[in-house]
Amino acid sequence: MASINDQPVAGGAGSERGSDPVARTRGAVRRYPGVLALDHVDFEVHPGEVRALLGKNGAGKSTLIRLLSGVEKADEGTVEIAGTALTGGGSREASQLGVATVYQELSLIPKLSVAENYHLGALPTGRGGLVRTAHMKDAADAALVELGVKVDPGMPVGALPVAEQQMVEIARALRGSPKLLILDEPTSSLAAAAVDVVLQAVTRIAATGVAIIYVSHRLNEIRQIAHSASVMRDGRLVETVNTKGASSDEIVSLMLGDAASATEATARHTSAPATDRPVVLSVRELSVPPKVRDVSFDVHEGEILGIAGVLGSGRSELLRSIAGLLPPASGTLTVFGEELRRWSIRDMIRRGVGLTPEERKTDGIVPLLGVDENIVLADRGSVRRGPLLSTGRQRAAAAKLVSALSVRTPDVGVPIGALSGGNQQKAVIARWLHRGSRVLLLDEPTRGVDVQAKAQIYDLVRKLADDGVSIVFVSNELEELPLVCSRVVVLRDGAIATELTGADITESAIFAATLADGTGSAAASTTGESE
Amino acid sequence: MRLSRGVNELGLLAAIIVLYIVLGTKAGGFLTSGNQLGILRDAAQIGIAAWGMTLVIIAGDIDISIGPAVAFGSVMVAKGATAWGLGVPLAVVLTLVIGSAIGAFAGFLRAQYNVPAFIATLGVYSALRGLAQFISNALPVPLPDSGFFDFLAGSVAGVPTPAVVMILLLVVFLVIALKTPYGRAVYALGGNPRAAELAGIAVKRIRISLFAVNGLLAAITGVLLAARLGSGNGGAAMGLEFDVIAAVVIGGTALAGGSGSILATALGVIFITLIGNGLVLLGVNQFLQDVVRGVIIVLAVLVNVLLGRRNRLTS
C-alpha cells in the first residue's frame, strides 16, 4: 500500500513541495456530548494540492471541515490557516484568512439571477448607492468562464441544471480569492454525466495555486482529481494515501477498519432469505428520471429487504415512487398479484403499502396532534362509533400499539411533537400497523434517533417480519443493514449495482458496492441532472 | 399546548365578564333584555360564518369573501322570490346551492392549482359585491310577504331565530371539529399537509369542501339578513369578513393552521359583538368605533401570542 502517513504530499500538479501549508491542524480535538468527534488530528494541505477526504458517515470529516472553516472551535490543539492560528472568531475569521467552503446543500437563491447570486452580500454599487447591473453581470460571467462554464448571467439561477448551479456556488466561493477551497460532496446531487464539469473546474482552480479539500464518496472522481486522500475513521485521521498507488479495496478497508469485522461477527437475525415465500411486491423496470433508472426487484412475504446507496444514488426517490408520491416515467408495480401501471399514494395505502418518510418532522407527523390521533391517522374508520369518532376506541387502539412498540409517552393524548425522535418514528410505524399494512417502506427509519431507540427499531422490524409483514429498509448507515436485512439491493447512480444475500451482506461488501469506482458509472445516464 | 388553550379561553371569558361589568355600570340600557337579545341577534351575523371560518383557518387557509357573499345571498333570495318567480322555498334552496358552489369554486382554485386562498377569495370578494349590486341595481330588493321570512326575522321561545340557527350550527360544528374523521383530518392537514397526504387523507377534496361550507354559511347568513331587513341589499354586510376573521383569531386559532377551537371562536364572537354594542351605547363617534375595535383586536391577538410564547418557553 502506498502509505505516506502524515507526510504532506504533493504529487502531480502540486509541485509546491516544501512550501508552507495553507491549512494545518495539530492535535485537534473536538467533543460533542457523548462523542469524541475528532481525536487528535494532524492534518495539512499545501497550495495547489487537491486533497480528498474520505470516511464513512460519522468518521469526522464534517467536523474537520467545520474546524478549518471556523464554524466550530477545537476543544484542544490548534487550527492554523496560512500560518495564523484561529482564535474562535467564527467563519468570518477563517474566511478573512482565506478559507471558502461550499457545502453539500446549495445555498443559492433560485429566483435571483446568476449575477446576483454570484455577488450575494456584496453587490457592486456605483454613484448614489445603485447597483451597477452591467458590471455585475460582466464580473459574474468572467468568473464562470474562468471555470469553464458559459451561462447567461441574467438568468434566474434556479433555471440552470444542478451542475451549473454548483458551479455558480463554487465561483462565488472563489470571489474573495481564497487560499483554501473546501468542497463538501460537490457532486453528490449530480447525475454521473454532469460530474465532469465540476471535476474540470476543480483541476483548473488547483492549477492557480489554491489548495482544495474535496469530500466525496465516489472513488473514481477522487482518482481523477486528487493527488492524495486522507482517510478518517472514528474521529481519527488513519492514513493519507497516494490515490494513484492504493487500490479501492485498500482504501475501503482503511475506511472501515476493524469495526467492520466486529459487526460482521454479530449474529444476523434473519439468516435465511425468505425468497421461497410468496412475492408481495414486485417492481419492474421502474424509472424516475433523472435519479432512478430501470430498477427491478421483488419483495417476499416476511422479508426485510435493504436498499443501500450513497446520498444521491436514488434511494429515496425509488421508495417515494413505489409509495405513489413520485410518478415514474415508466415501469410497473405488482402488489399482491395485481399489476399497476399508474398508482397514487391512496391506491397503495388501500392495497396495504405504507411509507414512513425520511423527513419525519416535515413529512411524517402532525406535531400538534396527540400520539393517538397520529397513530390512527391513516385509518380512522376503525375507531368510529356510528358516524362519530370514539375517543375511547382511538385511545385504546393507540394504547395497544404504544405498548406493543414500546413508544415512550406519558400519555397517548400528548402532542407527538413533544416525543423524542425514536418514539415519533415508532408511532409513525404504528400508524401503518393500525391500518393493517402488510408492506412497510421505511425510509431511513433510524435517522436522528439515539442508539437505544435504534436497537428497539431493529427489534421491531425483525418482529414484524416474523409476523409476515414485508419490509423495505432504506438506510444510509451501512452497519445497520447487515443487522436487520435478509437481502440487500445496492443502488449506484440510480440503478441496481448489486444484490447481496445471507452471509454476503457485510458492511464492507455493501460499502464497496455503493462507491462508484472506475468502470462502475461508465454507462451512466445522460438524461440530465436537474431535479 | 392544551394549557395555553385553556388559559386563552379562560382569559377571553374573563375579558367578557369585565366587559359585562363595565358596560353594565357605564352604558345605559346595556343589561335590558331587549339589548341582550339584540346582542344575540348581532352575534349570529358574525357567528354562523365564523364556525366555518375557524375550520378554514385551522386548515391553514383564509376566506375573505364573507361580506360580499352574504350580500349576494340576500339579493339572490329576494330576487328569486320576487322578480324571478321561483317562490320562497326554491329561492332559498337556490341561494344556498349557489353560495356553496361559489365557495367550492374558490376552494377548487386553491386545492387544484395552488392559487393562494387569499387571492382566490379576493377575486370572489370583488366579483360577488359587483354582481350583487348589478343584479339589484344597487337598490334594496323587497321580500314578498311570507310566513317563512317572518319566522326567520322573529324569534323562537323569545330567542331571535338567527341566534337559534347560530347555536344549532355551533353544536354541529363542535361535533364535526372534535368528533368526526373529517374534522380531525382538517386539523391534520393544517398541522402538516405532507404528513396528511402520506397518511392517505384526501387533502384536495377536504380543502374544496371547507370553502363550499363557508359559502353555504355565508348564504344562510344572507337569507337571515334579508329576512331581518325585509329586503335583499347588494351593499349589505360591508366589512363583515373583518369581524368574522377577528373573532376566530381572538379565539386563539393560529393563522398558520393546525390548531384552533370552535368554542374559543364562540367566545371571540361574543367578545367582538359586545364591543360593537357597547361602543354604540356609550355614544362613541361612529368612525372612532372602528379605531377602537382595530386596537382591541390587535391587542387581543398580541396577548394570545405572548401567552403562547410563555407557555412554549416553560414547557
Task: Explain the layout of strands and helices.
The complex is a heterodimer of chains A (531) and B (315).
Chain A (H helix, E strand, L loop, with lengths): L22 E10 L2 E11 L4 E5 L6 H8 L7 E6 L2 E2 L4 H8 L1 E4 L11 H5 L14 H14 L15 H13 L5 E5 L10 H13 L3 E5 L3 H7 L2 E6 L2 E7 L5 H18 L13 E10 L3 E9 L3 E5 L6 H9 L6 E6 L2 E3 L4 H6 L2 E4 L3 H5 L6 H6 L7 E2 L2 E2 L1 H14 L16 H15 L3 E5 L7 H16 L3 E5 L6 H4 L2 E6 L2 E7 L5 H8 L17
Parallel strand pairs in A: 3-8, 3-9, 6-7, 7-8, 13-20, 13-21, 16-19, 19-20
Antiparallel strand pairs in A: 1-2, 1-4, 4-5, 9-10, 11-12, 11-14, 14-15, 17-18, 21-22
Helix pairs in contact in A: 5-6, 8-17, 13-14
Chain B lengths: L1 H25 L6 H26 L7 H16 L6 H26 L3 H20 L4 E2 L4 H7 L1 E2 L2 E2 H19 L1 H11 L1 H6 L4 H27 L1 E2 L7 H11 L11 H20 L4 H29 L1
Antiparallel strand pairs in B: 1-4, 2-3
Question: What does this protein structure show overall?
Answer:
The complex is a heterodimer of chains A (531) and B (315). Chain A is of the alpha/beta class. Chain A has 3 domains: 23-98 and 178-262, P-loop containing nucleotide triphosphate hydrolases (Rossmann fold, 3-Layer(aba) Sandwich); 266-352 and 438-514, P-loop containing nucleotide triphosphate hydrolases (Rossmann fold, 3-Layer(aba) Sandwich), CATH 3.40.50.300; 367-431, no CATH class. Chain A has helices at residues 61-68, 90-97, 114-118, 133-146, 162-174, 195-207, 219-225, 248-265, 315-323, 345-350, 360-364, 371-376, 391-404, 421-435, 451-466, 481-484, 507-514, and strands at 23-32, 35-45, 50-54, 76-81, 84-85, 99-102, 180-184, 211-215, 228-233, 236-242, 279-288, 292-300, 304-308, 330-335, 338-340, 353-356, 384-385, 388-389, 439-443, 470-474, 487-492, 495-501. Chain A has a 6-stranded mixed sheet, sandwiched between helices. A 6-stranded mixed sheet of chain A has the order 16-19-20-13-21-22, sandwiched between helices. A 4-stranded antiparallel sheet of chain A has the order 2-1-4-5, with helices on one face. Chain A is globular. Chain B is mostly helical and 315 residues long. Chain B has one domain (2-314): ABC transporter involved in vitamin B12 uptake, BtuC (Orthogonal Bundle). Chain B has helices at 2-26, 33-58, 66-81, 88-113, 117-136, 147-153, 161-179, 181-191, 193-198, 203-229, 240-250, 262-281, 286-314; strands at 141-142, 155-156, 159-160, 231-232. In chain B, the strands form 2 sheets. Chain B has a two-stranded antiparallel ribbon. A two-stranded antiparallel ribbon of chain B has the order 2-3. The longest helix of chain B has 29 residues, at 286-314. Chain B is globular, with a radius of gyration of 19 Å. Classes of the chains: A alpha/beta (531), B mainly alpha (315). At the A-B interface, α10, α11 and β18 of A face α8 and α9 of B.
